[in-house]
Specification:
- The chain is built from 13 helices and 2 strands.
- A hairpin with a 5-residue loop joins strand 1 and strand 2.
- The chain has one domain (about 5-130, about 145-370).
- With about 375 residues, the chain is mainly alpha-helical.
- Mean pLDDT is about 80; it is low at about 120-140.
- The protein has helices at about 5-15, 20-45, 60-80, 85-115, 140-150, 155-175, 190-200, 200-225, 240-260, 265-275, 280-300, 310-335, 340-370, and strands spanning about 120-125, 130-135.
Length: about 375
């Protein structure tokens, strides 16, 4: 499970490893990249616990990714404007609320699973309650059978969409320059070309999100016409749900860019708020991080900000630790039949990240104070 890795690795590399932030951020992305590959290798072969389809919700990842990148872009700009003390306050509020809600969900699910015991198959209702369900699913007509067959295989379109979205955004980021490094074509910050390139990435991402939403809503209507039966934990792609999820992904990306926290730390809890099964939420969040981390590593490599020797070791370390962690967590979940362990692990990671990120935030404020920097809002340029 990979939730909020950036929120732990970057502070640890700075506090314990004594790396400078310019070195810690690329190495953290390499470590997360290795962990993402290990997670995907294991999770792509696993099945959804209530239906014969992949564990990863590829459609949800495809919907969330474009507007999350839009939100991240806006958040990074706001990060340069907001004073350090305000960023720290917002960071504390976001992480504490996220940890509290995730922990409460985990505790509530733990109690429900303990009460239910081994009576049957545990699934999640859209209301958030857990009941014993009959796991047998019977197709009522040929159309439903066809839908179930299509859902049972890994779709190709989400991979293509996410690759194109991240490739385009990465190229534009390299052209205009960012916190990862200067422009590769010599564009100066706050110049006309800089703002044109910044704005240019927003309309395509919005259009892609609208097209994906239409595709998902049409698929839902097709299912309804043929009496397709949704199970607890399934996402019903109504216009309302796709709109809410798209807006939520933008806000999540905004918080990630504004506060400098990892995407997994916001998308994991966000998916749990959608009443997704914990294992599906963790797998889908890790799948999204796989693409973003690879895109970030590619940008750092082009900019020459990767330390080769460290990068190789951190990649191997991330892969090995994630592979072992995922293996043992899955064994614990199967042995004790408690998916609440996943949610509780997420809350622990968020708690650790909260402590580390607040520590870094306080250190940054102290450095600004000693340097005599202003504690008011700053110019974006």
């Amino acid at each position: 499970m990979q939730i909020g890795g950036g929120g732990i690795f970057v502070p640890l590399l700075i506090l314990v490893g004594r790396f400078e932030p310019e070195e810690a951020i690329p190495l953290s992305n390499v470590l997360i990249g290795g962990a993402s590959v290990a997670n995907f290798i294991q999770m792509c072969r696993q099945r959804n616990p209530v239906r014969n389809k992949p564990l990863i919700d590829y459609n949800l990842a495809m919907l969330l990714q474009p507007l999350a990148l839009c939100g991240t872009l806006v958040g990074v700009i706001l990060n340069t404007i907001f004073p350090s003390w305000l960023l720290l306050v917002l960071l504390i509020v976001v992480l504490v609320v996220s940890m509290q809600r995730t922990l409460m969900k985990g505790i509530r699910l733990w109690k429900q699973e303990k009460r239910i015991g081994d009576m049957g198959f545990i699934t999640v209702h859209n209301s958030g309650e857990y009941n014993v369900q009959d796991s047998s699913i019977h197709s009522i007509n040929n159309q439903v059978s066809s839908i179930e067959v299509q859902e049972s295989v890994t779709p190709k379109m989400p991979f293509v969409v996410m690759f194109v979205v991240l490739a385009v955004s990465s190229v534009l980021s390299l052209f205009k320059g960012s916190s990862k490094g200067p422009s590769v074509i010599g564009v100066h910050p706050c110049s006309a070309a800089y703002w044109v390139l910044t704005v240019a990435s927003l309309p395509p991402l919005l259009i892609i999100t609208i097209i994906i939403s239409i595709f998902l809503v049409r698929g839902h209507k097709y299912k309804l016409r043929h009496n397709y039966s949704y199970l607890p934990g399934d996402i019903i792609w109504t216009i309302r749900n796709t709109t809410i999820m798209s807006i939520a992904s933008f806000i999540a990306g905004l918080m990630a860019g504004l506060l400098g926290i990892g995407g997994g730390m916001v998308f994991g809890p966000l998916m749990l708020e959608f009443k997704m099964l914990p294992e599906v939420a963790a797998a889908t969040s890790s799948f999204m991080i796989l693409f973003t981390s690879i895109a970030a590593i590619a940008q750092f490599a082009v900019l020459g900000r990767l330390i080769p020797d460290y990068a190789i070791w951190f990649c191997v370390l991330g892969f090995s630790c994630s592979f072992l962690g995922q293996f043992f967590l899955n064994r614990l979940v199967r042995k004790y039949k408690k998916t609440s362990l996943i949610i509780l692990c997420v809350s622990v990671v968020i708690g650790m990240s909260t402590i580390l990120l607040i520590t870094i935030g306080i250190m940054k404020i102290d450095e600004d104070r000693k340097a005599g920097l202003s504690f008011g809002f700053k110019s974006v340029c």
